[in-house]
Amino acid sequence: MKLQSENSRSFLLCMTLFFLVLIASVSAGAAETYHLKDGKDWEKIDRGKGDDYTLAVSNIKQLIVQGKHKEAAKALNELKVAFPEFAGEDFDAFVAAELLYARKKFIKASRKYEEFLDSYPDSKFYESAMEKQFSIADLFIKGHKRPVLGLRWFHAYEEADNIMHDIADRSGHAPIAKRALRTLAKGYQKRKKYADAYDVWAEIFSIWPTGDMRKESLLEMAHSLHSAWKGPKYDSTTLLLARSHYVEFKKKYPLDVDKYDINEKIKLVDEQLAYKELEIAKYYSRAELPLAAITYYEYTSVFWPETTAGKLAKEAIKKQRTGEKTAAEKRPLERKLFDVTCLFLDNWFGLSAIGSSD
Fold this sequence. Notes:
Helices cover 73% and strands 6% of the residues. By secondary structure, the chain is mainly α. It has a domain at 220-358: Tetratricopeptide repeat domain (Serine Threonine Protein Phosphatase 5, Tetratricopeptide repeat). The strands form two sheets. A two-stranded antiparallel ribbon has the order 1-2. The protein is elongated and about 95 Å long.
């Protein structure tokens, strides 16, 4: 009985302590208010001041949305007076950029954000300014135009390029750096600026040489180079580099070969390379330089025997040696069909769109 009585007293003591702690916690919670810091983390402030601060910030946001910039500026000044702990030079600089952004003065806003980032790298508003810079560059990449001398409107692609690279330089390996460069590269691809796209994907590949970014950037480098090729009249270096990237992708990610049609793309590159050499052989044939023509026909047939051009090259070698007209010279139906196919190959640019992974 004595042991039972002691256990009961211990139980009552524990329960009493529990309720005391619970009451204290509830009381403390009732006196605490939080506000969203930099749009991400919640920061505790006093309940009385917290209510006033939240109401003031909400009012300022409404004024900015409504386009009442003068009223918003006045309210911001009042906020600084009422809550000096949130005021400071960095706050003033950030607000100046924010007001320009709200007025859709994106070029001026971007410059202000850049000045802010240079001057206040330790500010609690730093990440918010970076996000706004990203949103401005993204708008420019999507085609938003800027006024010049108030007379004409021009695309701001160059400004977007500078902003995105500035974000990447400032943030190193942070997620926003990855988003900035990836968005920039895809913007180049959509505008068919494949050489520029390749440069950015190569930059991404060098910064993130592992994981999903390595796989995507390797694939997109191949797509960009392949799409950059202008036809058999031009140098085939981009085709050769594209093929090497496709082959590397095939080795590194064998499970994704079918998903991205890598084998088909390699075959297409081979067709294009072979066709270029066949065109050179035909040129020498027309110029009545049979030895040079045969050299290129043989080169085409040996290195690309399974391609359409390789098979035509074999036939041309036989005809060239016997002095007969080649099928290319006679231009039968199958040759005309091949010409149509090659016209498609010459103007082909779709792989970047087909292979892009959003």
